[in-house]
């Protein structure tokens, strides 16, 4: 029996621009992704002679083959049948700390951890880039989650180029427990409402890629300019999620108001939502804004975290 334990961080999107339609039904994106300290813990244990199973006591996380981590294990077994025969199935235990369907890539990071962990347990020696290629079969956010840190993501989100590390960015993150947003719904609604500005042919997409507005965010990151990073936060999916979820607007507005008083750098919804984050410059300020926001919205359904940007993705802490 072999086992390993991994830290699987969530992500936020500092920038998300939808630039067009793709023949595969996905959307062509330009995103700036950032790993954060809020993380699941994933434990893997080989099970000689037994099938793969997932253990997770979070009521909204499936433990059958809908679980993205189980799918990652199945993909590895399919691609590496010899190692799979030798080691048998794997028990995947997920300690779920990342809120589910929140726009924070919780399922994707568990899948990424499973790929990284099985690479270690099965002594496969796969490179980060090979693991990312496998991850792209599981979901658009999985390749980013493998290496994590700060990165530009293009294509449907699976093409990753590392960016300089964002240091000293602290965050207040909020999410209503009972609210979940389906990513497929968010993109579908965007397509229905704003699809007429889409470009679908490759030449048009290439021309559009040259005109994306992510340049100022990328240069703010290169210059380590936190206040400019705060000004350049952007997410196209806010345009479809905010009109349907008034609580998200209330949380966003409250964080913006705290910002005016406490010097918040910027506020934005992450991914397809409904989580919203505010960027600040110190841990103490993050704690203060978190407390003030909890006082301003005294709703037990609202969960708030003080967290921070981190420079790494999946971290194997023991094997
Ligand atoms: C919006 C983002 C931003 O990082 O994150 P989340 O909010 O899910 O965390 C991602 O684009 C989500 O990535 P991920 O959650 O991996 O999506 P996938 O499983 O690949 O796709 C789920 C569904 O979203 C839509 N989809 C996703 C990615 C993309 N570029 N175009 C799309 O249209 C498709 O309808 C797809 O069926
Ligand atoms: N390991 C997992 N953790 C969380 N959700 C999972 C997992 N595997 C599958 N899911 C399913 O994926 C859906 C999206 O969850 P999640 O990945 O947390 O959100 P998001 O796509 O917003 O980042 C959930 O509704 C859940 O049913």
UniProtKB/TrEMBL annotation:
The UniProt record lists the keyword Nucleotide-binding: yes
InterPro entries with a match to the protein in the record: GHMP_kinase_C_dom, GHMP_kinase_C_sf, GHMP_kinase_N_dom, IspE, Ribosomal_Su5_D2-typ_SF, Ribsml_uS5_D2-typ_fold_subgr
EC id: 2.7.1.148
Recorded catalytic activity of this chain's protein: 4-CDP-2-C-methyl-D-erythritol + ATP = 4-CDP-2-C-methyl-D-erythritol 2-phosphate + ADP + H(+)
Signal peptide: none
SUPFAM superfamilies, sorted: GHMP Kinase, C-terminal domain, Ribosomal protein S5 domain 2-like
Pathway assigned in UniProt: Isoprenoid biosynthesis; isopentenyl diphosphate biosynthesis via DXP pathway; isopentenyl diphosphate from 1-deoxy-D-xylulose 5-phosphate: step 3/6
UniProt keyword list: ATP-binding, Isoprene biosynthesis, Kinase, Nucleotide-binding, Transferase
Domain GHMP kinase N-terminal: from-to ranges: 67-149
Pfam families the record matches: GHMP_kinases_C, GHMP_kinases_N
Superkingdom to which the source organism belongs: Bacteria
UniProt GO MF annotations: 4-(cytidine 5'-diphospho)-2-C-methyl-D-erythritol kinase activity; ATP binding
Biological process (GO), any one: terpenoid biosynthetic process
Similarity section: Belongs to the GHMP kinase family. IspE subfamily.
Job description of the protein: Catalyzes the phosphorylation of the position 2 hydroxy group of 4-diphosphocytidyl-2C-methyl-D-erythritol.
The protein, known as: 4-diphosphocytidyl-2-C-methyl-D-erythritol kinase
């Amino acid at each position: 029996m072999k086992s390993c334990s991994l830290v699987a961080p969530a992500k936020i999107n500092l920038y998300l621009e939808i630039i067009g339609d793709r023949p595969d039904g996905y959307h062509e994106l330009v995103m700036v992704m950032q790993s954060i300290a809020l993380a699941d813990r994933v434990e893997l244990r080989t099970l000689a002679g037994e099938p793969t199973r997932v253990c997770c006591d979070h009521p909204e996380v499936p433990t059958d083959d809908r679980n993205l981590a189980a799918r990652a294990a199945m993909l590895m077994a399919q691609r590496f049948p010899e190692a799979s025969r030798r080691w048998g199935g794997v028990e995947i235990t997920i300690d779920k700390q990342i809120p589910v369907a929140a726009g924070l890539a919780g399922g994707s990071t568990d899948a990424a951890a499973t790929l990284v962990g099985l690479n270690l347990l099965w002594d496969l020696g796969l490179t980060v880039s090979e693991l990312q290629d496998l991850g792209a079969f599981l979901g658009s956010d999985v390749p980013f989650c493998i290496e994590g840190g700060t990165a530009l993501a293009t294509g449907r989100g699976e093409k990753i180029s590392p960016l300089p590390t964002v240091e000293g960015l602290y965050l207040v993150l909020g999410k209503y427990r009972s609210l979940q947003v389906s990513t497929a719904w968010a993109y579908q609604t965007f397509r229905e409402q704003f699809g007429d500005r889409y470009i679908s042919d490759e030449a048009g997409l290439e021309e559009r890629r040259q005109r994306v507005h992510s340049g100022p965010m990328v240069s703010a990151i290169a210059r380590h300019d936190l206040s400019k990073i705060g000004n350049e936060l952007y997410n196209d999916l806010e345009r479809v999620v905010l009109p349907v979820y008034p609580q998200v607007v209330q949380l966003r507005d409250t964080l913006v108001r705290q910002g005016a008083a406490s010097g918040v750098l910027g506020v934005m919804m992450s991914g397809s939502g409904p989580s919203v984050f505010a960027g600040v410059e110190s841990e103490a300020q993050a704690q203060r804004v978190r407390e003030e926001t909890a006082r301003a919205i005294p709703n037990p359904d609202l969960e708030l975290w003080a967290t921070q940007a981190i420079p790494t993705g999946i971290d194997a802490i023991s094997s």
